[in-house]
Request: fold
Amino acid sequence: MPSFSVSPKLFFARLLSSAVLIWITSLSPVSAHEVLPSIADMTQEGDSLTFDVRLNLESFIAGIDQTEVIDTNAAPQAETYDALRALNAADLKARFAEFWPQMASKVMVLADGVVVIAENPTLSVDPIGDTEVVRASNLSFTAVLPAGAQSVQVGWAPEFGVLVLRQMGVDAPYDGYLEAGAMSDPIALAGGDQASGWQTFVRYIPIGLDHIVPKGLDHILFVLGLFFLSARMRPLLTQVSLFTLAHTITLALAALGYVVVPGSFVEPLIAASIVYVAVENIFMKNLSPWRPFVVFGFGLLHGLGFASVLAEFGLPKSAFVPALIGFNIGVEIGQLAVIAVMFLCVWQVLRVDRGSNEAFQGKVLYVVLGVAAAALIWLNPSVTSTAIENPTWLFAAPLLAIFLLCFGSIQLRDQVDAYRKIVAVPASVAIAFVGAYWFIERVFL
Reply:
């Protein structure tokens, strides 16, 4: 057994947790600069199609690849974006006029398989307002159809991001959520391509998942805060079940329009909820009598946060319930995936902490995992970065810290509650600091 004193090691653990929060704060989800999906309404008028698109035009003109970032502040063109965001409507329209030929070449409209050209753009720009808030612009353009056209396909370049496409003015209209670079299925111009309830349900599951992993960073930290109170099944299931029930209630009520709460109020409270659960982890070893009620209350807040995501692109009126259920299931899959990954990360150290004689195997495992995480940080593979919409090292670095803490816990396995003192508490300290940073950012910055 190790003979050195505990205090320096515990100090090292807490110092390591501080490194975790520095890495994670670089992931800060700033809603004011969030990359949002564009919404296009498509209407046939005689022999042409009219597209009315609501989009964050500044990010397009700045050249931000929306498949690579979820926040414009993280893009190399962040300064250009901010400068464009500060332009008045007339100046932004002038910049758009220069940009339109480039954009038009990346908008794809096929009529019965024949390429038709996007043309005749008109632009409406909101006033400057608060430059720390995303400004949406309304772009309209047309595409002349060949004689006798029966169907169209629509899409655009991947760097323009997600496109929500809605067919207007027909019975049983098409309503689709197109991932970056995807082309729609053929859409009958006469209508009739409305998705069934089952298709809508299936389609919205990955949308809900995507808004937890990788985009829902604040929700991820909250779930991890629940996890680090106790890795035992009963308290974890109690908290997650109450959290799920609560956010399902407010998500449904908000999506139906019965509850409307401004994001400027909800988002800081979500950050505060992260701080609360993390701080309580530091001082409480087990589930307190009040924690289930607090988690349920915070779940109501997080449900409002999910509802704001849905409000970005709306739910299809014809299949509202299947879409809502599918989105919520996607959210739950994301939350369970976060818990499962973290459980796998700490599984071996938990076994050692609970008396299993596997210290050597555990040390070897965490050395190997640490080397793998360090390699991901060093190499920062572009394929992985694109898949998670953030540089790989931003996720691999906190995992490396967790693996090092787990190694330290095994090294100090003769101490009472080694896992809690060396892994759970430092991780909770890091989560609390990140939540506090987000709270200050959302209220004051």
